[in-house]
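Deviation from plan, reported transparently: acetyl coenzyme *A complex.
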Amino acid sequence: MIAKYNAKISGTGHYVPDKIVNNFDLEKIVDTTDEWIRTRTGMFERHHASSDQASSDMAYEAAAKALDAAGIRAKDLGMIIVATVSGDHPFPSTACILQKRFGVKGFPAFDVSAGCTGWIYAANIAKQYIENDIAEHILVVGVELLSKLINWDDRSTNVLFGDGAGATVISRSEPKDISRFIDSELSADGSHYDLLMQPAGGSRTPASKESVEKNLHTVYMEGNKIFKHAVKSMYHVCDLVLKRNHLDVKSIDWLITHQANLRIIEALGKKLKIDQDKVIVNIEKYANTSSATIPIALDECIRNSKIRHGDIVLMASFGAGLTSGSLLMRL
Ligand code: ACO
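Because the crystal trials were delayed, the predicted structure below was used instead.
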């Protein structure tokens, strides 16, 4: 069936908390060095939320900017989707809390849990609703506040994450419009679900005195095992959408990948044979903000006019699950 409408990004925004923690600050509290973090990951700074901030607070700031950029008001939305693994509460969804913050109701609002691939999953869901003419404008936010879920005794994870939110308004693209989603591919390999998780706090291991004492409510990650899957899985989903649309990599203006490790970003660029100048990197400023990395990078590049209306952008991510996904669009 040929869809009546297509979907496009009509507005973007991002928010990061004021507090900046750089590698030298971490050297004072963790058994690590600036040299190790820089050479192994490409990270230098990350932003940490204040004790009274929650994910919905960051999502609200980013979303307000995205609505403004799209030239619409919250009452014009037909849906809110928040991609997060660090929402305000296990339930209800952070999307419903965001709906309340905007003072609107009467349309669906829900969260998507797909780790760092969350924003790509959520954008793909939004695309289906737009194409089926069920909504005209959908707010899709990637937000994470992982600094509160870090195990400060585990240096292999505690230096990697930053807090932030990236928001996008995904709207109907009329046939005459050049901006549109071209294609998307989502995947997951649940056989590796236990490589990256928050072990306790759910129905498998409910919160208890013991779970708190053992630090089971914090991020557990087998980083080097995930590393091996990252490039392979992102390459696979990128290659699929390029081939399916008969596109040579030379026709891609920009590649925005999940910002988890500079070595992973560069290795993917090389494997795709894309000019490294077209690969967007901001990991040194924000570290890994999980589901927020791609919408933050997209908003930054639009606001500083690096990425312009009409550019072809390929996005790719991987994360907890293990999930992976790509999204190809003309901005
Ligand atoms: N400072 C100093 N040394 C450290 C640190 C640190 N912060 N962390 C680990 N090390 C040491 C280890 O103890 C180890 O020492 P040893 O050789 O004496 O045993 C050594 O560094 C190498 O450790 P590795 O884990 O093998 O290091 P690696 O080169 O793999 O880098 C990293 C680790 C950065 C985590 C990398 O594996 C990575 O980026 N993995 C992918 C992570 C990821 O992308 N996750 C998915 C997205 S996140 C999400 O979905 C929420």
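The chain has eleven helices and 14 strands. We consider this an acceptable substitute for the interim report.
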